[in-house]
Amino acid sequence: MMVPRPVSAVFRTQAVGLLTLLLAFTITINQTAAQRRSTRLHANPANTIEAAALEFALNAEEVTQLIGKTADITASNGKEEQGVEITRFLTGRDKSQIKSIEVKAPNATRSKRLLVTRLDEMKIDDKLYQFQYLPSVKAAMLEDLSKKNAAISEKLKASNEEFWEEIPEEEQLKYVNEYKEFLDKVGKHYASFNMKLYETRYFLFYTDMPANQVAPYLVQLDKMNELLGQSFGFKPGHNIWRGKAVIVAFIAKQAFLEFEQQFYNRTETGNAIGLCHSHGDGKVIVSCYRGNDPNFFGAVLVHETAHGYIHRYKSTVNIPTWINEGIADWIAMMVVPSSREVRFRQVEAANRLKQVQTFGGQFFNNERLDSWQYGSASAIIQLMLKASPEQFKLFFNGIKEGLTWQDSLQRAYGLTVDQLSQAYGRTIGIPALTP
Question: The organism sits in which domain of life (predicted)?
Answer without folding.
Answer: Bacteria
